[in-house]
Amino acid sequence: MDLNEALDEARSRAEDLSRRFGVATPPVEAGETLPGAHVLLVRRDGELCLVIGPGYADLPELERDAALAWVLAQADPAKVRSRLGVRETLTALAAVIPLGLVVGLAERFFEVSLLASYPLVGVTAFGALLTASIRKQTFATDRRVAEVCGRATLDAALTRMRREPPPVRGLYRLVAALTPSPEARAARLG
To answer: Which residues belong to CATH 3.30.2010.10 in the chain?
Structure first.
């Protein structure tokens, strides 16, 4: 399949999937995507747009559907919540409390000012919250795709991620490290 055929198919599938997800059908265009991602949902002039990457045409049909479904599921923030609730926020921050206690106790017993350590506690707290938020959004999106498209569609995407993990460089490496593994995602769905 060449890129033009892939774009036509993506437009047709995006229309069907958008209707099933209850979101407006975004325009579809060819473009560059992130490493390992064949489809991206981006904002162009305030509107959502699907960007189809060069490797999309080479994917098997079920994996093309999974790539489209996963990004379209995220187009409805009410159905895929990434905001943390009070309980989740407190749980994530509780993981940082021991580090704060160590810094406080070290200051007290060694009579040293560890002001430089407080930014470390702040960065650690931010990392804990970011990780919890990414995990929540990933699991919620997986559940939504499985609900709307069936478990087989999501399993196809997770199998591909296991078989061909995306290359990770730069800032994308941090996001990939915070994202649950395909095994954890499959186990979470049960």
So the answer is: 3-73
Cα–Cα distance for residue pair 134/74, rounded to 1 Å: 12
> For residue 148, what are the CA distances in angstroms to 49, 86, 166?
21, 28, 25
pLDDT(94) > 90: no
Given a contact cutoff of 8 angstroms between Cβ atoms, the answer to whether 153 and 62 are in contact is yes
Q: Are 86 and 129 in contact, with CB atoms under 8 Å apart?
A: no
Its CATH architecture, for the domain 3-73, is 2-Layer Sandwich (3.30)
**86 phi and psi, to 5 degrees?**
-60, -45
Of residues 173 and 132, more confidently modeled? 132
Most confident stretch, 9-13, 125-129, 171-175: 9-13
Q: Which two tokens stand for residue 83?
A: 């905001």
Q: Is the pLDDT of residue 50 over 90?
A: yes
Q: Give dist(CA 35, CA 33) in Å, integer.
A: 7
Residue with tokens 């064949």: 38
**Which pair of structure tokens corresponds to residue 174?**
């941090």
The encoded tokens of residue 170 equal: 């730069």
Judging by beta carbons within 10 Å of its beta carbon (0-12, 13-18, 19+), is residue 130 exposed, middle or buried? middle
Find the angle CA(85)-CA(179)-CA(87) to the nearest 5 degrees. Answer: 15
CA–CA separation, 98 and 104 (whole Å): 10
